[in-house]
Amino acid sequence: MRFKLQLDCKIAQMKKQIFRLIIKKMAKSQPDFAENKFLHTRKANEKAVAIKSICYDTMMILLGILCAGFGLKGFLMPSDFIDGGTMGLALLSNQIFDINLSLVIVIINIPFILLGKNTISKEFAIKTCLAITGLAICVAFFPYPHITNDKLLISVFGGFFLGAGVGLTMRGGAVIDGTEVLAIEMSKRTGLSIGDFILCINILIFSIAAWVISIETALYAMLTYLAASKTVDFLIEGIEEYTGVTIISIKEEKMRMMIINEMGRGVTVYNGERGFGNSGEKLYDMKIVYTIITRLEVSKLKYEIEKIDPNAFVFMTSVKDMKGGMIKKRRLK
Questions:
Q1: CB under 8 Å to 132, separation ≥6 — which residues?
Q2: How far apart are CA 65 and CA 21, in angstroms?
Q3: Is the distance from CB of 290 to CB of 247 less than 8 angstroms?
Q4: 126 vs 120, 123, 228, CA distance in Å?
Q5: pLDDT digits over 145-181, tens only?
Q6: Are 174 and 107 contacting, i.e. CB atoms less than 8 angstroms apart?
Q7: Which of 80, 84, 178, 254 meets the CB 3.0–4.6 Å disulfide criterion with 225?
């Protein structure tokens, strides 16, 4: 009986060892399940983000094409008005040489598409090519209604819808006016800024329009360009305006708690080293407080800072756009 018990124990131990060997061999031959699951989840997330981005860009470009086509055929073209940039050149060529506008839009922008490929990226060039082709098709075949004959309304709203088209297309990662691409490249080669170069091009276009067509048409073209450029800025920079605030103070902890509790906003704290300031101390470690608020909260934040530390050094910068964080999720206090 005793011998049988010993034999059963040895058999059980052998089974355990064999089972452990099998588990080890399986673990070596197969990748880690948790790691596989993590990689699969990450790839699925990346794919979802890519699909979402493509859908968003496509929607923005299509809306931009429709808006620009409406601005051209509903307002500018029936009254022989022009705009600035390459679109202004296309409209001017259409009036002077009586060339089909759709064809001119494509031909004029071909050099800028090639330039965009070298200056920005291949993806940008492909999107721009598709956007310009879509606009040409839209102008050629879409039956937009003629809205008004009032020259002031034509210049303002024609510029508005054309600018909305340009701005929405830029939101989608493309352009339907190649002037910006040329301006970026020329700003690298010359001392002119992008804005200065675009201004020079438009002055040339408006001067030609004044000489060939009429001074009145050139003046209305300037008004159209102003309406379009303001609309583009509005769409690119966003509806909401934010302000980034940097606070340097010896009472940085109170500043941080005030922003969190009183303002209800997020805050970031940087490590810094102070030089010589109003407090009299020379070099010492300190904290730099940074937050982003809406322009409606600037006055309140200044008041709260003044209560805590009147000698605090504060500077503010304009924030064009932002993503994430808590500023868009929480109400103003």
A1: 105, 106, 109, 113, 176
A2: 66
A3: yes
A4: 11, 5, 24
A5: 888 889 899 999 999 999 899 889 988 888 888 887 8
A6: no
A7: 84
Q: What pTM was estimated for this model as a whole?
A: 0.71
Of 323 and 223, the one with more pLDDT: 223
- Supply 159's token pair: 């510029």
Q: Over the stretch 2-47, which tens digit does the pLDDT of each residue have?
A: 544 455 555 556 656 665 665 555 555 455 555 565 566 767 777 7
Q: Give the C-alpha separation, 177 to 180, whole Å.
A: 7
Per domain, the residue ranges of the chain are: 1-30, 49-237, 242-319
- Give the DSSP letter of residue 298: H
Strand ranges inside the chain, DSSP E: 242-248, 268-274, 284-294, 313-319
What three-state secondary structure class fits 215? helix
CATH of domain 242-319: 3.30.70.120
